[in-house]
# Entry
Amino acid sequence: MSNGENRGAWGSKIGFVLAAAGSAIGLGNIWKFPYICGENGGGAFVLIYLVCIVVVGLPIMIGEIMIGRSTQKSPVGAFEDLGGKRSRWKIVGGMGVFAAFVMLSYYSIVAGWACHYTWLSISGEISGGDPKEVGAVFGNLYENTNANLGWHVFFMALTALVVLGGIQRGIERGARILMPLLLVMLSVLLVQATRQSGWDKALQFVFEPNTDNLTAEGILEALGHSFFTLSLGVGAMITYGSYLRKDSCLVSNSVAICVLDTVIALMACLILFPITFSFGMTPTAGPGLVFQNIPVALAQMPGSQFLCIVFFSLLVFAALTSSISLLEVVASYFIDQKKWSRKKATLVCTAAITLFGIPSALSGGTDLFGANFASAKESILGEEWGAITKGNWFDFADYVVSNWMLPLSGMLIAVFCAWRLGEKVRRDEFVRSSTLGHLYAAWLRLLQYVVPAIILVVLLHSTGVLKALGILD
Ligand code: TRP
# Structure
């Protein structure tokens, strides 16, 4: 099967890296990582997260891109091709499509917050530097269900527009300009952060592995987040890999994406925590962390209003390069498997995801999907699991997708790649045009044994199975 006309292919070698990095780098790095890092006590969590990236994330990323490039198909079709038409492996692809569907439905809410902040920066409503006032702005937005709904619809429409434009024109062009710009903006903020009085404390918080606050759920969260941030476990990289040219090195591309993604996540922490500590705020601010800290940081610089506009609009673009990859996963399932046109698939999927996101948009309120949902859940699951699975619908959706669905399908993808994919295809894909071909055996061992074992142990540990068996406490 070759790159047919309507599949499209990346226009250049760098196009793929940029777009895949664009998918990986998103709200996961700048919004989510710092706040879960804060909630889980910093250093030790960061260390575990880094181990997960290198030992679990990178090998699976190579595996996903490999599956995509060798079959030239999106996930369900790829498993069908490699595993046989009637193979149960198709279910893994289907699970991924479902996870992407749910994820985009709440991802878009957070992206909507970024849109709202861009708007507030333009109208000059958040250029002040008082942490209390800035914090209240987020609190109000969080509870404002109309604003959340409106921005959700807006952002989904934006995502659909890009995906409708097709591969090269839409995705690649945007990523090429805006990703580097994001890096520049973050570097400026980082320099500013080093001048804050809380800088030393922040460094200590992020890099000193203090296990006091680390729990089993924290470890699961670190593992889950390594999938979330690298866009793994839903077949996004299978889809993107199917557009990767045959003469590009799969391994070094994957390494580049992982490194870039990790650097940006750590930068975000080193930008946000100095502010947190300088102004006596707590690192456990939760989902509002980035929205409460950035305006305070920027208020200390000249041209703060302009910088706020730049920062939040870049955040919207970073979210957009990620959300398009999620929509692409869902839409390309219908394009490839159901033979829908790109237009029909994009429009129908966008509408469905937007509807499914409504409960998330309403989660900040006290009714149905907010506080009521949380207490209903608690009475069903019991207090302990009620707390572990977090509060409202939005938190719950993120918990289930990130901590359970992504690692689970990631594990199955690893098993597939290591045990079912033909040795010839696998080795050829890994070694072709590669300077890192000598790592093949090590990579394969990781994927065969280490990755499935780690994921299994973490999942079992989190369900309390290991504890019940008396293996770990
Ligand atoms: N990686 C993105 C982020 O960090 C989110 C994302 C985009 C994603 N596409 C994905 C996560 C596919 C999992 C699978 O914000």
Summary: The pocket of tryptophan is lined by residues 23-24, 26-29, 100, 228-229, 231, 233-234, 236, 322, 325-326 (CB under 6 Å). Residues 13-469 form a domain with the Hydantoin permease fold (CATH 1.10.4160).
